[in-house]
Design the sequence.
């Protein structure tokens, strides 16, 4: 059984050896992303990145699905100074967490079953690898809810072609597991009951690597996605020289 490392009403934290599993824990709301959950996830990711005993992370959701996206009930209705302030915080957290998942020194695999909608879909594909269940329902229905997809478009566009991204955003179609894998947004498609264990197995394989080398590889990988071919080779050269200068392992 995994060792419980901590608990919050909206986020469950468990350790499987050097793998830390973070579980979105609002199953009665299909793990909709409210401010409390976003704050808990922000803090848990920061804690894991600073904890030397944690070598890899799994992000998953409790209950019937990964996450239904934004908790619409939190920011609809009459607007006042307090709600406007809270909405601004939510928007900031949604953006910052997508960056954080890529910039952590520890690799993260998403274990996604059932619904991964809107912000939930964005969080899933911002992880370094993605395992999905055959029961996946993936999509970006913001426009159908009279919302502009401000917080989710960047991560989608960066990982699919522009035509596929515009279709997903503008038509709000729901994609299957096979569709998501075909678009390159998922690494594995497995039975729903195998999703979490498959993700944990990937994370455990990561822990067998030297953590400094793995952190350097992740950092280099995302830097290279944003730059020219020649600049990517230059980064590779610089990282190679830095790694060769490390003290030999005992």
Sequence:
């Amino acid at each position: 059984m995994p060792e419980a490392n901590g608990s919050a009403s909206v986020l469950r934290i468990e350790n499987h050896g050097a793998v830390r599993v973070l579980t979105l824990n609002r199953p009665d709301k299909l793990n909709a992303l409210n401010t409390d959950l976003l704050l808990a996830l922000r803090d848990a990711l920061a804690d894991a990145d600073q904890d030397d005993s944690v070598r890899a992370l799994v992000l998953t959701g409790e209950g019937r699905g990964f996450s239904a996206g934004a908790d619409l009930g939190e920011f609809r209705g009459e607007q006042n100074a307090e709600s406007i302030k809270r909405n601004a915080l939510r928007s900031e957290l949604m953006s910052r967490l997508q960056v954080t998942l890529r910039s952590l020194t520890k690799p993260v695999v998403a274990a996604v079953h059932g619904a991964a909608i809107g912000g939930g879909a964005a969080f899933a594909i911002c992880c370094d690898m993605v395992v999905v269940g055959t029961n996946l329902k993936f999509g970006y229905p913001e426009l159908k809810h009279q919302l502009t997809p401000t917080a989710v478009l960047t991560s989608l566009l960066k990982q699919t072609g522009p035509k596929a991204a515009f279709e997903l955003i503008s038509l709000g179609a729901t994609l299957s597991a096979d569709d998501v894998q075909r678009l390159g947004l998922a690494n594995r498609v497995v039975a729903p009951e195998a999703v979490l264990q498959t993700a944990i197995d990937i994370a455990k394989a990561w822990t067998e690597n030297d953590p400094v080398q793995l952190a350097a590889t992740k950092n280099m990988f995302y830097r290279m996605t944003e730059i020219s071919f020649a600049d990517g080779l230059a980064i590779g050269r610089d990282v190679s020289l830095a790694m060769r200068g490390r003290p030999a392992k005992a």
Observations:
- Residues 211-244 form one domain.
- The radius of gyration is 18 Å.
- Strands lie at 3-7, 11-16, 19-24, 56-61, 108-112, 115-117, 129-133, 137-139, 174-175, 188-190.
